[in-house]
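Exercise 7b. Backbone tokens:
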């Protein structure tokens, strides 16, 4: 039977709980255990799919088409275990399930209540599909003390009892702030937070203390005394140089040892850290550096492009170069006096990422034109591919009104709404004016690549599967006109109806993809498109 690790946070949010869970998962895996990491989000949205990236960062999409919290991206990048719909649940989804059942009459006249109905649903979610695992890590979003997270903490309390002795532990991640005026680290917030958690019936076994300064032994002992945990189980967590240093850093502080001890397992030997040492070495000792410009819309919040940022770093790991990313607001290029060339000339490569809505689109099209004409490596992802097609249509194929129906009715829908497509489950259909939540082409879809294409040589194969999240598609009806202008359709859905990849054979590196390759890239297995893109940027850096 799988053992469960419940992870809560205290004092403040943004303590890197997700990264801690991902790193612990990686460490347990490096000791030969089978792990899966799950996230419980206390908000009332059914999923983060309809939330603005400014609110909640990137929406991470799984193979099975779930729109999930960005922490699932960390889990997957650190463990290589593909996340599933069943790995992320929100209060909204739990209530939706319960209310649907209630309306159907499934509760047979009972009063439906938070305890036991909501807590039972949370417990069922935690326990589902865990047969073949050694450890299940469950991260609870939010901060202990929030009204919203109470049912989740209560479910943990019950589960710890249901599972029986030795089958679960609780890890609490807190902050030990440094008060400059006093010149001291303060443990009181941690004491209060643990007291709050304990008052809900959950006593932590391991405390992870985020701090900006090394935690002296005396403070560690004080936390242990007041919080009722062994001194060794008070794990200091200082800021890391790179997120990929975090697993090794936690190992050095004894996190995996203490977790095993809390389960009554004597840690034997050391985890195999080869994978992480190699990544850290490549990041710490780069042999060159490139600068990539990302021309986007949500550039004020790096979390909005979390996976993209990481995939570019992975491309650097593959080539042993440091990747500097310049986040450029596409709207800048829509001002009449903007000097696009001055802004883009110093860059070694340009990327236009996924986006929704018209804002910034003209600035992106102008950047794509620059990349095409100046022969600067260009990578278009989802919206970035769609706009590469509009750019070619307008500026090369002579279709002056070329547009996307996402921006309103148009006589030349180079990009259009599709309401029917084939998926593994059969024909999918949508209403043009249907719900916005969960109704896009979502999750893994196969694509067939032209044998002699640049992308086939990059992938080293002609059948691929990549994750999607979009409502509109490039209109295959314009294929001949676009190909005549030099933009070739080298990847299609297996039925040949949906363009998946376009590229320019006459350009050093110009690829647009309808899917999101960044979601599958890992530091120990950089995505081939990102590895190749950064390689092209490196070549470009030698020219400019
Ligand atoms: N807005 C576009 C669509 O819905 C592109 C989406 C995206 O880039 N993820 O098709």
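Sequence design result:
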């Amino acid at each position: 039977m799988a053992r469960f690790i419940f992870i809560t946070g205290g004092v403040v949010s943004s303590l890197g709980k997700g990264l801690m869970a991902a790193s612990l998962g990686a460490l347990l895996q490096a000791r030969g255990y089978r792990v899966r990491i799950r996230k419980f989000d206390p908000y009332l949205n059914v999923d983060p799919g309809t939330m603005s990236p400014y609110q909640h960062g990137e929406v991470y999409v799984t193979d099975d088409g779930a729109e999930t919290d960005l922490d699932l991206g960390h889990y997957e990048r650190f463990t290589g275990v593909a996340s599933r719909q069943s790995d992320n649940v929100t209060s909204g989804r739990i209530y939706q399930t319960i209310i649907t059942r209630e309306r159907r009459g499934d509760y047979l006249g009972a009063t439906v209540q938070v305890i036991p109905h909501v807590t039972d649903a949370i417990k069922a979610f935690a326990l589902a599909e865990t047969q073949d695992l050694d450890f299940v890590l469950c991260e609870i979003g939010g901060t202990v003390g929030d009204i919203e997270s109470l049912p989740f903490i209560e479910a943990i309390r019950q589960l710890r009892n249901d599972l029986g002795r030795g089958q679960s532990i609780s890890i609490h991640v807190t902050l030990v702030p440094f008060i400059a005026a006093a010149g001291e680290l303060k443990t009181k917030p941690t004491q209060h937070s643990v007291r709050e958690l304990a008052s809900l019936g959950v006593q932590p076994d391991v405390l992870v203390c985020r701090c900006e300064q090394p935690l002296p032994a005396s403070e560690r002992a004080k936390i242990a005394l007041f919080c009722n945990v062994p001194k060794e189980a008070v794990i200091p967590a200082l800021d890391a140089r790179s997120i990929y240093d975090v697993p090794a850093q936690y190992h050095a502080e004894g996190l995996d040892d203490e977790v095993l001890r809390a389960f009554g397992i004597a840690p034997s030997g050391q985890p195999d850290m080869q994978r992480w040492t190699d990544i850290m070495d490549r990041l710490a000792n780069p042999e060159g550096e490139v600068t990539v410009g990302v021309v986007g819309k949500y550039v004020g919040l790096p979390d909005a492009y979390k996976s993209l940022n990481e995939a570019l770093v992975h491309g650097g790991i593959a080539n042993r170069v440091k990747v500097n990313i310049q986040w450029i607001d596409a709207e800048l290029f829509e001002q009449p006096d903007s000097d696009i060339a001055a802004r883009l000339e110093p860059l070694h490569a340009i990327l236009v990422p996924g986006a929704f809505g018209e804002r910034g689109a003209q600035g992106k099209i102008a950047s794509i034109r620059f990349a095409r004409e100046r022969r600067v490596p260009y990578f278009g992802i989802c919206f970035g591919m769609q706009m590469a097609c509009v750019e070619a249509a307008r500026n090369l194929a002579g279709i002056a009104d070329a547009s996307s129906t996402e921006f309103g009715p148009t006589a030349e829908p180079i990009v259009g709404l599709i309401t029917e497509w084939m998926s593994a489950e059969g024909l999918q259909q949508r209403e043009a004016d249907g719900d916005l939540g969960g109704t896009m082409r979502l999750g893994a879809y196969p694509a067939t690549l032209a044998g002699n294409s640049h992308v086939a040589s990059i992938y080293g194969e002609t059948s691929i599967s990549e994750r999607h999240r979009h409502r509109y598609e490039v209109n295959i009806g314009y294929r001949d006109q676009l190909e005549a202008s030099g933009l070739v359709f080298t990847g299609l859905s297996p039925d040949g109806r949906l363009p998946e990849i376009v590229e320019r054979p006459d350009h050093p590196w110009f690829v647009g993809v309808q899917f999101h390759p960044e979601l599958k890239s890992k530091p120990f297995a950089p995505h081939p498109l990102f590895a190749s893109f950064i390689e092209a940027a490196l070549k470009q850096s030698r020219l400019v």
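Instructor comment: Residues 354-356, 382-383, 406, 469-472 surround glutamine (CB under 6 Å). Residues 123 and 267 are 29 Å apart (CA to CA).
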